[in-house]
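Progress narrative, work stream C.
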Amino acid sequence: MVEITPSASRHSYASEHSHMWGIGPQPIMVAAAALFLVVIGIGGILAWRSYSGATPEPERLTASRLQQARVAQASEQLIEKTKGIEATQQQSIDQLQVVQDQLQTMQRLMTAQQTEARKLNEQVGALTSTLDNLRQSFASTSATDDKPAAREQPRRSRSRAAASKGRTKMKIVVQRKRPGARG
C-alpha cells in the first residue's frame, strides 16, 4: 500500500481539485473576466440596435398592425358580400312568391275554365239530344204527311198545282233542315 503524508495529501487534493474544475488558483479573476465579457456582449447588442435604427419590437408592432388591418379589411369585404347575398336572396324569395301567386291564380283560372267547359259540354250534349229528337219527330211528321198526300191524289180533291206546290215546300224545308243538322 501507499502511504499518504499530510503534505502530499494536500498537494494531491489541490491538484486534483484544480484539474477537476478547470479553475485556476484565483477564481475571483475568472469570475471578473466572465462578468466583463457578459457586460461587453450586452453593450455590443445595445450599440448594434441603436446604430442600426431598427428594433424588432416596432417591426413586430407594425407587422401585427398590418395583419390586423388586412383582417379588418377582409372582414369588411366578407360582411359586404354577405349583405349582398342577403339582398339577392331576399329578391329571389320575393320573385318566387310572386311566381307562386301567379301560379295559384293560373290554377284557379284553369279550374274555372275546366268547370265552364264541362258545363258547355253538358249543354252541347243536351242540345244535340234535343236536336236529334227534333229530327226524329220531323222525320216522322214528314213521313205521315207524305202518306195522306198519296191517298189524296186519287181523290183529286185538290188541284194538281196545289198538291205539287205543297210537296215542293216540304222538300225545301227538309233539305234546309238536313244541312243544318249535320253541323
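Work stream C, second folded protein:
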Amino acid sequence: MLKTIVFFVFFVVFSFLSLVCLSNSEIKFISPIGAVARSAIPGWGQVYTKHFFKGVIVFLSIGALGAGGLEADAIYRDYYNNKYAPAVLSDSDKANFYFDKSNQYFKLSRFLLYAAGGIWAYSIIDAYIDAHIYNAEQQIKMLKIDDEKLQQLKQKEGISYLPYNNCIDFKSGFLISSFTPLNHFNVNISEE
C-alpha cells in the first residue's frame, strides 16, 4: 500500500512538473516512440503527450483494476488452499461449496487483471497516436507562424503577390493549393 501511495505522489509531482516546464509557447515535437516507452508506467505516456486528465484516469483505472484483481486472487488462493483442499482431503460435504467460491474469485481476479492489461495496452497505442496528433498540431502552428511572417514580408517589401500566399486553410488544416500557374506572373508562354 505504501508503494502505491509513493508511486502516486511521484506520478502527480512529475505530471505537474512537466505541465510547468512545457507550458511555454515554444513549438516542440515529441517522440511517438518516447510516448510508447513512457507508457510502461500507466498514464505517463498520456502526460507526455499533454493529455493530463487522460493520464490520471488511465493511472487510476489500471491501479484500481490491478489492485482489485490481486485482492480477488488472494481470496481465491485462500479459499482454494485453506478451505477447499482440506475439505477434499477430509471428504467433507462443503468441498463443492468451497470449490465454487474459489472458482468465482478466480474468474473475478482474471477478469480484473485482464481488464487492467487491456486498458494498459490501449493506453500505449493511445499515447503513440496522440504523439503523432500533437506533432501534426505543432506543424500547423509552424505553418501559421510562417504565413504570418510571409504576410509581414509582403507588407514590408510592398509585394503585391507571393506565389504561395494563403495556400493553407488554417480552420481545416488542408492545403488549398501548392502550385501557382505561370500566367499569374504575366509571363508570356508561347510555343515556337
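The chain has one domain: 2-185. No further action is required on this item.
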